[in-house]
Design brief:
Blueprint lengths: L15 H17 L11 H14 L6 H20 L12 H15 L3 H24 L5 H4 L5 H8 L9 H14 L3 E3 L2 E3 L4 E2 L6 H4 L5 E4 L6 H13 L7 H18 L8 E3 H5 L16 H15 L2 H14 L18 H15 L2 H16 L11 E2 L9 E2 L8 H10 L15
Antiparallel strand pairs: 1-2, 3-4, 4-5, 6-7
């Protein structure tokens, strides 16, 4: 046994069978699957995923010394690899901010890695200064520059934990200035568009977005305006406010409510082409209620923003819809995988968060239902325990079992661990306050 069950707690008072099932799945992952800790053959995304699981489980291990040694091996391997690459990302999900998050997690637990955290933060602050110069001379709007996964919304949210550091605060303010400006409406080819509109020529992955013609507006959390909103609101809540920030938050909230009205009340997230936006029409319906691109994660941050801004009408409507969703059947979420990004584990984390914030039992009941759905999908015969149904490519759907945070077992393990201990850090990757 790797976990000390005396340290595990059934904080949410779930059924004993489910509680024991969580522990058994974590035990299988940590001690029974030979490829989980194959450090030599793992890519960076897999390494950071495993590092996250180890950091989340550290308070529960029997022999913390042995496990800390493994954590240190992963930390050194990741940092060395990234330092060898001058072009290494500073992003929240694929770069230095991700490693910094876990280094800070360990610093809080054991008082270690303070110098590493400081070093990482200075690397990030330097990259932000370079980004500021780049953006000043290049006004192209690219998703990878502003989104949660690779861009400034995610990096900024990471830095909020260090906002009292006078060397870090200016970097946060730089990101705020960039994102506040991005919420301004602009005229493009005679069309008034939100500032986060991405033109065709500025989309490196345009083959994936080709159906949107000359450009698109993305309202999702992972890659769109809701991610910008989440960071601006989280910063505002911490008292980190620049000129125009409150107006920017209100602009995004109002834009989302207008988008919902244009879609006949069907969409809070989603993507619309430039042409359809100009014509005030839509051909998009959000069915899959995932963390990355579903209505519910967007409603959560619209609620948070409206509450901070004193927008009672919008706050109450968002809350009413979130409570209504807590009474749906699981199948109504249209999720096909157990993962964090676009699966049941991500939505489990969201409803858990809603319960923690409100204490309302309907949210916990839905979170437990989603948890059960995740547990039912566990397959001990697969390499890591869970299979993700991929997006169809040329009409072909594949099933993958990998060991990453967003799309694989590592993220699921972090969510499972959250049910048996008091605190977790991975929710910062989801931008939860």
């Amino acid at each position: 046994m790797e976990l000390d069950q005396r340290l595990c707690k059934n904080f949410y008072h779930i059924d004993e069978s489910e509680y024991e099932n969580i522990i058994q799945i974590l035990e299988d992952y940590l001690g029974g699957k030979e490829n989980v800790f194959d450090l030599k053959n793992q890519n960076l995304e897999e390494k950071t995923g495993v590092l996250g699981v180890l950091c989340e489980c550290m308070p529960l291990f029997y022999n913390q010394e042995i496990w800390f040694e493994r954590v240190h091996q992963y930390m050194i391997s990741i940092v060395r690899k990234m330092e060898q690459n001058e072009a290494a990302s500073v992003s929240l999900h694929h770069g230095f901010a991700n490693v910094g998050l876990w280094a800070e997690c360990l610093r809080k637990q054991f008082g270690c890695y303070s110098s590493l955290t400081e070093k990482i933060n200075m690397r990030i602050c330097g990259a932000i200064a370079e980004f500021q110069a780049y953006y000043a001379s290049n006004v192209r709007v690219m998703t990878q520059d502003f989104d949660v996964i690779t861009g400034m919304s995610g990096v900024g949210n990471y830095l909020l934990a260090f906002s009292e550091n006078p060397d870090v605060l200016p970097a946060i303010q730089t990101i705020l200035e960039y994102l506040v400006a991005l919420t301004e409406y602009k005229i493009t080819d005679g069309i008034r568009l939100p500032g986060w509109h991405v033109s065709r020529e500025n989309e490196p992955l345009y083959e994936f977005y080709r159906e949107y013609g000359d450009g698109y507006i993305n309202y999702s959390l992972a890659h769109g305006s809701a991610g910008i909103l989440a960071f601006l609101t989280n910063a505002y809540r911490k008292g980190i406010v620049i000129e125009g920030q409150k107006d920017a938050v209100i602009r995004i909230v109002k834009e989302h409510f207008a988008w919902n009205e244009r879609t006949g009340g069907k969409c809070w997230a989603g993507i619309v082409s430039r042409a359809d936006y100009a014509d005030n029409v839509h051909a998009y319906v959000v069915n899959r209620q995932s963390w990355c691109s579903g209505n519910l994660s967007v409603l959560f941050f619209l609620y948070q923003a409206a509450k901070e801004m004193g927008l009672d009408k919008e706050k109450n409507q968002a809350w009413m819809l979130l409570k209504k969703s807590a009474r749906w059947e699981i199948c109504q979420f249209h999720l096909k995988s157990p993962i964090i990004c676009h699966g049941h584990a991500g939505l489990s984390a969201l409803f858990r968060k809603l319960f923690e914030e409100s204490g309302e039992s309907c949210f916990l009941e839905m979170a437990v239902g989603l948890l059960k759905t995740v547990l039912q999908q566990y397959d001990a015969e697969t390499p890591y325990g869970f299979r993700n149904e991929t997006f169809p490519v040329n009409g072909i759907t594949k099933f993958e079992d990998n060991n990453t945070f967003l799309d694989g077992a590592a993220g699921i393990m972090m969510e499972l661990s959250a049910w048996i201990k008091e605190q977790n850090d991975f929710e910062r990757l989801l931008l939860f306050p």
